[in-house]
């Protein structure tokens, strides 16, 4: 935050911390937006929370998803602020307490190893049960401990410990130990009373750190999990990760779609487009002041995808179908097929139904059986081979295990002659190819590319390559 | 910067914006007023997003009416480029002038047989053809040059190409454009800029960063009643309540395209024309095509008309 432009109003402390919270929640708050927000807040002030909320929403959140994240972050942050008594009050409470401490120290002047005014103050606060002051003290200690840097849930204990130390717990514990050792009834009961209070304090701090984690680190944790998921084997995913995965798949497909959905033109430098040059220069009586060059249109890729949904790849086919679905939304010229024992076209289902229904419908219609590649390929030849031309890319998703049926490599051979290329994506590791009933090596000669594909990251890379080559 | 601001007294507070827009016939939510207020004071464009027909374009018109500024509208489409958006040279006029001046050329350079002197003389005339007189200003340039400021509406920015979006950045952040032959033109009074988008594609981050982002969704029942009342003045209070309640229920159904505020207004006008005072099932059925634009939607809603109408009448306190 040190990079603010000179002369621009720098955001006040609470605002700056809110930016940090907003970033933690997954909003991208740039320095420029920070300055804008500060200027806007200067205009409207902090008094009216709804106006403040609207104002910051206009500047910081730029998509509907971001608006939702923003709303949550705003509520969480400013609610917490209100509970703890805000920024200024925290300081004054603290000052009020320092003088209050000294008279209390009088009777204890023996100084039986209490050590550290922090411990003393904490003991006082706990005994007087002054919750507001405790909360303020906790806020202050938390700020000193740098709790806003918390990123992972594993750091929870670390930060809780640091905050407690800063509040003087260690000293207090030493004091309590000393009290116990005196053996006097009064000191013993006092130590006991304190002990339960300390326990409560621990809980409160832990709770506080938990909330801070939620505030500052949500975006980070999400990102971390997503990174993990992207490189996890699709067949090993747990059920609870499904939803997150679904979102990831959709994002990925959307990204690919945005990049390739448009027809692009590439300028052919050096070839004059005479007709359009004349038209463009009509205003000068046809004297070519401005030259127009011929362009080459880059076509959208035409893709046919054959997806294995049999039992052997069942764990993966759900995701393959999901990706197929997303791709279907992205590319206009795509035809999708699913096969196990036989093959059907599923473009319509993918187009009309929402994603979950589409997938379960496909799986019900054709899925789970034992696969017969030969049969499925000849189905494809009978029904759809005539739509394949030299611009088509055929993608086959499957493990190539045909349960010892005739692999019909002749069909794939004919297909490879007709189409632009065949790409085979196999979820199995390379070492397993050709073992048992795998016909992968028999199909491989006819394919332009055969590759292992069992994580989302690999899938994205392969699809990107396909789309790029088609360009 | 502040001395460049026009003296728009009405923009002194958010409430003033609210009232001003109300006077211009636009019932704004608090958020919209805040956006206009901030846009003026921070001198930033507003990017307005939301479903079709919730009053994005209308907002710009109302701001213009209220502040008595000219509204300059630029509709975006694929292939829009700077010669249509910013400026173009008046080729015809340039050509015509050269033709006319052909005869005069001798009198200008006639006496000099020295080539260098003749060229120097011609040089003085050269710049005339690329001066302001031969410049055809398009919406963006006009918005910058209008004395006293203007309201610039860049409609459906998501329909334009990505390159055009990048081209807009200079105007949006500094209120200036660069014309190679003339130099950089600054806005005398920065216009109030509104961009609208229907989110058919994601806009670039650079553009979004320069704008305030206002999302207008469907209004709640209270706000919609106020909007209809202001747009369809002659409407009966009870009918109004029923209409709005009906439309609000329609929006909860699973439809391809839910009716938007503009459709509610149209429907209200139809009802007033038909002299209706309460919602009748038959009448609703006959006029449903005003609200819904897809055959499939009309079919879905058609089955539930009786229930929806009944509920709407209950909400408005009309005896069944």
Question: Please, could you describe this protein's structure?
Answer:
- The complex is a heterodimer of chains A (about 475) and B (about 325).
- With about 475 residues, chain A is of the alpha/beta class.
- Chain A has helices spanning about 15-25, 30-45, 50-60, 65-85, 85-105, 115-130, 130-145, 155-165, 170-180, 185-230, 240-260, 275-280, 315-330, 345-350, 355-365, 375-385, 410-420, 440-445, 455-470; strands at about 265-270, 295-300, 300-310, 335-340, 345, 390-395, 420-425, 450.
- In chain A, the strands form two sheets. Chain A has a six-stranded mixed sheet, sandwiched between helices.
- Chain A is flat, with a radius of gyration of 33 Å.
- The two termini of chain A are about 40 Å apart.
- By secondary structure, chain B is of the alpha/beta class.
- Chain B folds into three domains: about 1-80 and about 150-160 and about 190-215, P-loop containing nucleotide triphosphate hydrolases (Rossmann fold, 3-Layer(aba) Sandwich), CATH 3.40.50; about 85-135, no CATH class; about 220-315.
- Chain B has 15 helices and nine strands.
- Chain B has helices at about 15-25, 30-40, 55-65, 80-85, 90-110, 115-125, 140-145, 160-175, 205-210, 220-230, 235-250, 260-275, 280-290, 295-300, 305-315; strands at about 45-50, 70-75, 85-90, 135, 150-155, 175-180, 185, 190-195, 210-215.
- In chain B, a hairpin with a 3-residue loop joins strand 6 and strand 7.
- In chain B, helix 1 crosses helix 2 and helix 12 (about 260-275) packs across helix 13.
- Residues about 1-5 of chain B have low confidence and may be disordered.
- The interface of A and B includes residues 39 and 285 of A.
């Amino acid at each position: 935050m040190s990079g603010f432009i000179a002369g621009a109003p720098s955001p006040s402390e609470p605002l700056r911390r809110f930016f940090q919270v907003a970033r933690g929640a997954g909003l991208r708050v740039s320095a420029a937006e920070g300055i804008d927000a500060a200027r806007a807040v200067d205009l409207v002030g902090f008094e009216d929370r709804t106006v403040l909320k609207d104002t910051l929403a206009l500047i910081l959140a730029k998509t509907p998803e971001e608006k939702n994240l923003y709303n949550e972050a705003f509520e969480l942050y400013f609610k917490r602020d209100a509970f703890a008594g805000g920024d200024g009050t925290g300081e004054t409470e603290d000052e009020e307490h320092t003088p209050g401490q000294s008279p209390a120290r009088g009777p204890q002047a023996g100084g039986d190893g209490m050590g550290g005014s922090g411990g003393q103050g904490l003991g006082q606060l706990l005994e007087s049960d002054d919750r507001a002051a405790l909360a303020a003290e906790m806020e202050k200690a938390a700020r000193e401990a740098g709790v806003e840097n918390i990123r992972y849930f594993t750091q929870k204990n670390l930060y809780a410990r640091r905050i407690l130390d800063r509040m003087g717990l260690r000293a207090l514990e030493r004091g309590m130990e000393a009290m116990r050792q005196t053996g006097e009834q009064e000191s013993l009961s006092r130590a006991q009373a304190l002990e339960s209070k300390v326990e409560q304090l621990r809980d409160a701090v832990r709770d506080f750190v938990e909330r801070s984690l939620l505030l500052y680190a949500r975006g980070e944790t999400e990102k971390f999990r997503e990174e993990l998921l992207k490189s996890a084997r699709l067949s090993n995913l747990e059920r609870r990760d499904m939803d997150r995965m679904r979102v990831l798949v959709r994002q990925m497909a959307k990204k690919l779609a945005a990049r390739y959905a448009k027809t692009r033109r590439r300028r052919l430098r050096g070839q004059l487009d005479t007709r359009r040059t004349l038209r463009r220069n009509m205003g000068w009586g046809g004297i070519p002041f401005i030259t127009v060059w011929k362009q080459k249109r880059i076509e959208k890729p035409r893709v046919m995808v054959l997806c294995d949904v049999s039992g052997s790849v069942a764990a993966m086919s759900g995701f393959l179908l999901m990706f197929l679905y997303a791709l279907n939304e992205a590319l206009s010229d795509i035809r999708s097929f699913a096969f196990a024992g036989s093959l059907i076209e599923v473009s319509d289902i993918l187009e009309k139904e929402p994603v979950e229904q589409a997938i379960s419908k496909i799986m019900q219609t054709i899925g789970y059986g034992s696969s017969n590649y030969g049969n499925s390929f000849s189905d494809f030849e009978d029904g759809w081979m005539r739509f394949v031309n030299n611009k088509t890319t055929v993608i086959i998703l499957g493990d190539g295990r045909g349960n010892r049926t005739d692999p019909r490599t002749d069909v794939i051979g004919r297909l490879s002659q007709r189409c632009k290329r065949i790409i085979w994506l196999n979820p199995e590791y390379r070492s397993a190819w050709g073992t048992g009933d795998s016909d992968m090596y028999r199909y491989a000669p006819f394919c332009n590319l055969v590759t292992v594909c069992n994580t989302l990251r690999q899938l994205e890379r392969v699809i990107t390559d396909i789309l790029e080559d088609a360009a | 910067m502040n001395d460049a601001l026009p003296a728009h007294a009405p923009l002194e507070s958010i409430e003033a914006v609210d009232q001003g827009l109300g006077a211009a016939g636009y019932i704004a939510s608090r958020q919209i007023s805040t956006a206009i207020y901030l846009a003026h004071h921070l001198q930033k464009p507003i990017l307005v997003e939301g479903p079709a027909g919730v009053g994005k374009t209308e907002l710009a018109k109302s701001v213009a009416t209220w502040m008595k500024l000219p509204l300059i509208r630029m509709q975006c489409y694929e292939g829009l480029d700077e010669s249509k958006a910013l400026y173009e040279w008046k080729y015809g006029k340039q050509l015509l002038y050269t033709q006319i001046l052909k005869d005069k050329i001798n009198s200008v350079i006639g006496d000099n047989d020295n080539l260098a002197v003749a060229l120097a003389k011609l040089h003085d005339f050269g710049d005339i053809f690329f001066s302001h007189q031969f410049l055809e200003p398009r919406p963006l340039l006009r918005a910058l040059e209008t004395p006293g400021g203007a309201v610039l509406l860049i409609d459906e920015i998501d329909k334009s190409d990505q390159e055009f979006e990048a081209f807009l950045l200079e105007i949006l952040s500094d209120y200036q454009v660069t014309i190679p032959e003339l130099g950089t033109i600054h806005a005398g009074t920065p216009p109030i800029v509104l961009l609208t988008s229907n989110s058919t594609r994601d806009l670039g981050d650079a553009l979004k960063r320069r704008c305030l982002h206002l999302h207008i969704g469907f209004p709640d029942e209270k706000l919609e009643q106020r909007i209809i009342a202001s747009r369809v003045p002659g409407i009966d209070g009870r009918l109004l309540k029923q209409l709005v309640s009906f439309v609000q229920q329609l929006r909860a159904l699973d439809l391809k395209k839910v009716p938007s505020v503009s459709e509610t207004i149209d429907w209200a006008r139809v009802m007033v024309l038909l002299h209706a005072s309460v919602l009748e099932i038959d009448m609703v059925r006959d006029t449903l095509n005003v609200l819904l634009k897809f055959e499939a939607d009309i079919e879905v809603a058609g089955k539930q008309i009786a229930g929806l109408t009944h509920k709407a009448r209950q909400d408005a306190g009309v005896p069944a």
